[in-house]
Predict the structure.
Amino acid sequence: MKHERETLYIKGGRNTEVAKPDVALGDILSMECPDKMTLAKLRAMKIMKFPEKGRGRRVLSVLKIISRIHEEFPELDVRNLGEADLIITYEEQKTPPRIWHLAKTAFAAAAVFFGAAFSIMAFNNDVDVTKLFGQIYELATGTQTDGFTVLEISYSAGVAAGILIFFNHFGKKRFTVDPTPMEVQMRLYENDIQTTLAENADREGREIDVDP
Amino acid sequence: MWIREILLAIAGLSAGVAVAGGLFSFIVELGVIADFADRTHTGDKVRFYEDCAALGGILGNLVTVFHAGIPAGLPGLAVFGTFTGIFVGCWAMALAEILNVFPVFMRRARITRYLSLFIVCLAAGKGLGSCLFFFRGW
């Protein structure tokens, strides 16, 4: 009798946060299998355990997950559609005091605000826009500049427009549906961090993997 | 005469847009603001930080171009100095990071341990250099 092997599809995200120290498969993977009974058992299957206290982060190879599944369901044909290395972060979900969050935001906002102001001032000073505007003004009109001409006004309007176009929004108002450059940058940064975590763990042999 | 004023206005406007685009993509691509958001765990506020950067840029530009006076006094100067210092420090390091200065030196010199010591030395050196620069009036 030829027995048709069931196929289980698993898909895990690259970086998953869990709130409990006991991590079950259902916490870190989304799974699909025609046999719903198996699926429910798999969801509850324990895969790893963090130390009770505080926080932790482990990198888990998907091979380890598959080998654990095969221990209990040897007949199952497992196909991974997600990441090969899963970063699992355990953090006790206690929200820090709101005031602390606000203070940190205010601090970062002040650094960004003054920093941006300083950057444009340093730039204007460095290339000596005052002198340059005087020269352009004289070239165009033949008269001496008084330092407050249409050039200075339009330049300032241009800087404001350029910044707002670049950032693609001001306050809640968005100009197009694209994500803003900072949002893209944050994601890129996160990706870099995750790649580093996974590769460090692999290189230092701390990844939870099947024996090579 | 009108045509010249209009030409000047167009030139000024284009210059402003080009400068703003260049300078701010530099700031954002260096990841200075992303670093702040990450270190303070306030990634949900990046939009707000963008607003702050936009406002800072616009106001800072107005101050330099029109030589506007801000009667903030010494405390205002201290605040301004502290935060611009933090920003420029992050900027310098972000620039070094983007240019892969650290990985290259670590590999060449085969440095694998005491990484934090090197970072402390780097910060101390930068601070000392900055102090020298100002105290000696260079």
Summary: The helical segments of chain A are 25-28, 36-44, 62-72, 98-126, 129-141, 150-167, 181-203. The mean pLDDT of chain A is 84. Chain A has two domains: 7-94, 98-202. Residues 26 and 40 of chain A are 9 Å apart (CA to CA).
